[in-house]
Specification:
The protein has one domain: 4-Layer Sandwich (Double-stranded beta-helix), CATH 3.60.130. The N and C termini lie far apart (39 Å). The protein is globular and about 60 Å long. It is built from 7 helices and 19 strands. With 318 residues, the protein is an alpha+beta fold. The chain binds fe (ii) ion.
Length: 318
């Protein structure tokens, strides 16, 4: 009887699971697949260890959670689409650019806290990520649980943000980042494809998502992405901006995060309706290459501003 082992990711964290024993054989067992789905729903993040580091396994594991959502932006590089549709490639190569300076430190692959597809009316259910080229240090992928963030938020702020909706844009330029900015943030060299994405951002309506939503379990989730947020719908004034900034700063300050140091034999899946993620950045001398699948499944609470209709080509690597 094939089986896998599921245990808490870290004793001091109320979310996340660690799963070992996943092979093509164990994945063929419906009881194991159900076990993985239950851990995903319950814990929000799963670290799969000692798993076969292949694209085939990446797709097989993704299929346990749900069907893939395609990623149609032309600037997003795909991996051998005939063989592995739906796998996207995210690379940093020192010769290509993509370096930022954050509070005095030059970093590559740095990404602020966010949830994926916030700039779209439809979210994705999950992402499955693996690392192909790992820098010798740094480049940690960090996760924080929105259920815990909701509980940790100051009661006054919680009450003021609870029923608000947040505006998001596809504007990925750090120069335009408005909320939750580090004290000092500056692009040193632009990452490939950014110009094309920014041009697309100007053609798209802004997307709107609730700051707090309630899961089927009854648990409330604080689900605000500091990156790409543009304001509070209906209150784009100084007071609204101060409120959103205060919430974003508390997210950063109170994030009881899990930080993942990658091995080639790891794969991670996270619940994009619940968990925020970020990347710590790494020394710009070293390349980093990640691949991700995107599992479809929307929570049905997002929309485009003013009943706008967005172009369906709104998927990005972030
Ligand atoms: Fe992301």
């Amino acid at each position: 009887m094939p089986s896998v082992r599921v245990c808490p990711l870290q004793e001091d964290l109320p979310f996340g699971a660690r799963v070992s024993g996943v092979t093509h054989e164990t994945l063929g067992d419906e009881a194991v697949r159900r076990q993985i789905r239950e851990a995903f729903e319950d814990r929000g993040l799963i670290v799969f260890e000692d798993i076969e580091p292949s694209g085939q396994m990446h797709l097989a594991l993704s299929a346990v959670i749900g069907p893939l959502k395609d990623h149609p932006v032309p600037s997003v590089e795909r991996v051998n689409q005939d063989a592995m549709p739906g796998v996207i490639d995210m690379q940093y190569n020192p010769e290509d650019g993509g370096v930022v300076e954050v509070d005095g430190q030059r970093l590559a692959s740095w990404i602020p806290w966010h949830f994926d597809h916030c700039y779209n009316n439809e979210l994705n259910r999950a992402g499955v990520l693996r690392a192909l080229t790992i820098p010798p240090e740094g480049g940690l992928t960090r996760f924080v649980d929105g259920i815990e963030l909701y509980k940790a938020l100051s009661p006054g702020l919680r009450q003021r943000i609870e029923d608000r909706d947040i505006l998001y844009t596809l504007n990925l330029a750090y120069a335009d980042m408005r909320f939750g900015r580090p004290r000092h943030l500056q692009d040193i060299s632009f990452r490939p494809g950014l110009t094309e994405v920014l041009a697309q951002a100007k053609r798209q309506p802004r997307a709107v998502h609730p700051a707090v939503w309630t899961r089927a379990s009854g648990e409330k989730v604080l689900h605000v992405s500091p990156w790409m947020s543009a304001g509070i719908e209906g209150q784009e004034d100084a007071e609204g901006d101060r409120l959103l900034e205060a919430v974003c700063q508390e997210i950063i300050a109170k994030a009881n995060a899990y930080s993942h140091a990658w091995k080639p034999t790891d794969m991670l899946i996270w619940d994009n309706w619940r968990v925020l993620h970020s990347v710590s950045g790494a020394d710009p001398r070293y390349p980093r290459r990640m691949q991700r699948t995107t599992i479809s499944g929307d929570y049905g609470l997002g929309y485009f501003e003013n009943n706008g209709v967005g172009d369906k080509i709104l998927e990005m690597t972030v």
